[in-house]
Amino acid sequence: MERSTLHIGDRSSQKLVARRYNVERSCIRCHERKSHDANTNTSLLHGAPTAPTEGLLVEDGTSTQYANEFLFSRGLEKESELQSAIDPPDSTNNSETSFMIGFDGLISKPQSAVDTFSLFPSRGQATHLWQMYLNNVDVLLKVLHIPTTQPAVFAAINHPNTASQDLNALLFSIYFAAVTSLRQAEINVIFGEDRQAVLKRFQRGLEIFLHSAEFLDSPTIVSLQAMSIYLLCYRNHNCGRSGWTLNGVLLRTAQWMGLHRDGERSNLPPLECEIRRRLWYQIIGCDARAGEDHALSTNGYGGFSDTKLPLNIDDRDISPNMEVAPTSKPQWTEMTLFLITAELSQAHQKMSRLSTAVLNGDDKMTSLEQLLETITTRINNRYLQHCDPNIPIQKSALLLGQVLMGKLGVFVRQQYLRGLSAEESASRASEQTLLLACDTIEIDNELKTDELLSNFHWLFSTFTEYHLLTYILWHLCVRPGVHCADRAWQLVDKSFNLVENPSWPNPGPKWNVLRKLREKVFHIRCSFSTIPFTSTRPSNNAVPEIFGHREDELPGDAIPSSVLGIEDVMNWD
Predict the structure, then answer these.
(1) Which GO terms describe its cellular component (predicted)?
(2) 380 Cβ contact partners less than 8 Å away, ≥ 6 residues apart
């Protein structure tokens, strides 16, 4: 079999034809099957019929690209210039093509003989990488139970020839993750060679041992852990469609193993239940983030999953010999950051489903506001109030929680504009929503630049705030004279400078669209004068103000949207 990779070509010069059409959701709707969630009220969604989801299909010869994020797809619908900008990056980009996991190893038997032991680091290097994994990766990604995993890791480091194939795959994913989190100068000290060469060697080892472990046909929890760790780091090196595709493979494998069903149903031991829960929420969270890179909304898996959230505990609180699970702690634990992201990701999926439900407009908005208030109160009281901003990982959790809640607040506020014409949307654009988006972007920039959090920037730099930036640019487009325009532009400029830093991961195909949109808005801005505006951002322990008045019509500076060239960007009917 020939080695196959996903080719990313430059098609910007080719003619693109776009059409919008309705696509029925393929997953089981949440109102058709009662999902179990012990922590979040889902009654708001139960029984609400779901409308077909609108999307945009961009065609090019024998290939197509689909987008169903309504803000993004409606903005592209009538803009051929923006449609062409969504093309993926040129395949000549080495940072992209160097990290495509291939069929030669993961799926098919490697074609050429490989001395696998030449791929292993020395024991000293391996021990150092394990410690870097604990410091820089495990604190963000709790799919391993360290007290039980660490002895197995050191045994495999000492005797790799006797370790199981899936454990060796886990080792190589750990090595790959650790190197991903390090800078070139640190790699030079450990290996004395180029970072890319080290990463490719460890990726190759992962591929070979996943194949030897028969990952696709006979997956294990250990091989799932290996693939989950790898895919979290994969986005740092490759923003192409292969990551989205591989997440689908991982998701199907997890379903085959029944991770979408809570282990308590099968009377599994408490530790095994916890590991399965952690894995499931990591996999679906990674899938949602991968979809955002390509303007795809999964709307979650609540309709066919009853897996409970993991417990808010430290690894030392649970062990293999326990017969009764411990209880969650009302304090900071090693799982707190993981749970913040898991719960807010699930809340976003529920809101996305509710936003397309066939409900009366007022009922829908009331339900969305209730859900938003419930989740923000819960996250703040259960997690954020226990975060110490002087401790790096806890400050990371605090800022990340504020960013995710701010995004939810902007999402809910935008629903007030649903069904309005383009000009009505422009005239009713609320400055409060713009301020919330700006506050959230400001916190996001801090998350990605704070020197105290530098060990975690390898991951946070992959969280591109497409939605918030798109909203800010749209708002500045339709209301260029808004009072806080100067501040908004400064934040947009800072975000663009960060994302386009050559040392940062490639932001993906959607970024070209934002770049084009920014150029359009810049020309509009040049025709208007703005009033300088100074705003005080929320303190570190404060949640961004999410609630307020509805999108009331504001007089003054709105301009006809037909002049803007992106007239349908917020028209969601």
Answers:
(1) nucleus
(2) 543
Alpha carbon 133 to chain centroid, angstroms: 20
DSSP state of 450: -
Q: What is the spatial distance between Cα 74 and Cα 471, in angstroms, rounded to a whole number? A: 13
Instruction: Show Cβ contacts of residue 155 under 8 Å, excluding neighbours closer than 6 positions.
Output: 163
* Contact criterion met (CB below 8 Å) for 257 and 219: yes
Identify the helix (H) or strand (E) that includes residue 54: strand 53-60
Specify whether the CB–CB gap between 34 and 46 falls below 8 A: yes
- Residues of the chain whose pLDDT is less than 50? 1-53, 60, 63, 66, 73, 76-77, 88-98, 102-103, 530-573
Q: What's the confidence (pLDDT) of residue 3?
A: 34
Instruction: Give 65's strand partners.
Output: 58
8 A C-beta contact, residue 236 and residue 180:
yes
With CA atoms as reference, report the closest residue to 318 among 281, 275, 280: 275
* Chain segment 421-474, per-residue pLDDT in tens: 777 777 777 889 999 999 999 999 999 999 999 999 999 999 999 999 999 999
Distances (CA, A) of 253 to 109, 248, 512: 19, 9, 33
Give DSSP secondary structure letters for 370-433.
HHHHHHHHHHHHHTGGG--TTSHHHHHHHHHHHHHHHHHHHHHHHGGGTT--HHHHHHT--HHH
Query: Which H or E run contains 73?
Result: helix 70-76
What is the C-alpha to C-alpha distance for residues 299 and 288, in angstroms, rounded to an integer? 8
Question: Quick one: tokens of 447?
Answer: 């998350």
Q: Packing angle between helix 241-256 and helix 221-234, nearest 10 degrees?
A: 160
φ/ψ of 277, rounded to 5, equals -65, -45
What's the DSSP call for residue 357?
B
Residue type for position 189: V
| Contacts of 197 by beta carbon, 8 Å cutoff, 6+ apart | none
Find, among 256, 4, 227, 223, the residue nearest to 108 by Cα.
Answer: 4
Q: Are 260 and 308 in contact (CB under 8 A)?
A: no
* Spatial distance between the Cα atoms of 48 and 52, rounded to a whole number of angstroms: 13
C-alpha to C-alpha distance for 285 and 545, rounded to whole angstroms: 25
**Sign for the pseudo-dihedral over CA of 261, 262, 264, 268:** positive
Non-local (6+) Cβ contacts of 282 within 8 A are 141, 143, 228, 232, 338
| DSSP classification of residue 263 | G
Q: CA 103, CA 216: separation in Å to the nearest integer?
A: 12
- This prediction's pTM: 0.79
Ramachandran angles phi, psi of 346, nearest 5°: -65, -40
Task: Provide the sign of the torsion angle of the four alpha carbons 36, 41, 43, 45, taken in this order.
Answer: negative
